[in-house]
Q: What sequence folds into this?
């Protein structure tokens, strides 16, 4: 199966699926068509770059895949479960249990330390305090930020903030990680390091989808998808 890294064919599993997905903002008939008939499968072991010009629909696609917004038409499945028809009360559980998010603006809680930020999803999931702390410390070590854990976001560099954000995204070992321009606020060397960390997570048998404009990252991906005017042009 193309794009799979670090897994055998027998181990590769379908993580997410979009069939005939379209998204129109505004009036259902005359509003802006951001996505048009998207067909997409995302599998374990894949590190995927989603590329295209501004306004091509990349962030909309990522938001639908992450159960943040609903498609106007079409179906979305996460680990075999149809999620586009779920009620608003059910979607947070899907996001918490299966999806990790990494944002361009980091989205860290400014009043919490780096360690406390990593622990947030673990606490929401009801992990015991000791287990949450142990898991957060393990992630911090893997992200090479163990010496920054007592600092608040305002005292961290952009690269350090993004490492905290990635650690938080990986805390519950989600099946799929969605990253929206995670390197945009970083210098090129730091950006490649960040993408390398995400790539390693994919190689461990998970799936990572990264929205980016940075052509320099293409050699790090096992799969590159091109989106333009709301349509997939190449995979």
A:
């Amino acid at each position: 199966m193309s794009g799979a890294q670090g897994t055998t064919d027998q181990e590769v599993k379908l993580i997410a699926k979009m069939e005939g997905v379209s998204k129109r903002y505004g009036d259902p008939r005359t509003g802006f068509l951001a996505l048009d008939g998207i067909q997409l499968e995302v599998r374990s072991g894949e590190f995927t770059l989603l590329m295209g010009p501004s306004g091509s629909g990349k962030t909309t696609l990522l938001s639908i895949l992450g159960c943040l917004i609903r498609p106007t038409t079409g179906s979305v499945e996460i680990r075999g479960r149809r999620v586009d028809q779920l009620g608003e009360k059910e979607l947070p559980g899907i996001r918490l249990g299966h999806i990790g998010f990494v944002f361009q603006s980091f989205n860290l809680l400014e009043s919490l330390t780096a360690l406390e930020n990593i622990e947030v999803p673990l606490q929401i999931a009801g992990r015991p305090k000791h287990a949450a702390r142990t898991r957060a410390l393990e992630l911090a070590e893997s992200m090479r930020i163990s010496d920054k854990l007592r600092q608040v976001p305002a005292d961290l560099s952009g690269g350090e903030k993004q490492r905290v954000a990635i650690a938080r995204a990986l805390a519950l070992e989600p099946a799929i990680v969605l990253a929206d321009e995670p390197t945009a606020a970083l210098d090129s060397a730091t950006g490649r390091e960040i993408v390398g960390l995400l790539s390693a997570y994919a190689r461990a048998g998970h799936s990572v989808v990264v929205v980016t404009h940075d052509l320099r990252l293409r050699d790090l991906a096992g799969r590159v998808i091109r989106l333009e005017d709301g349509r997939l042009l190449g995979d």
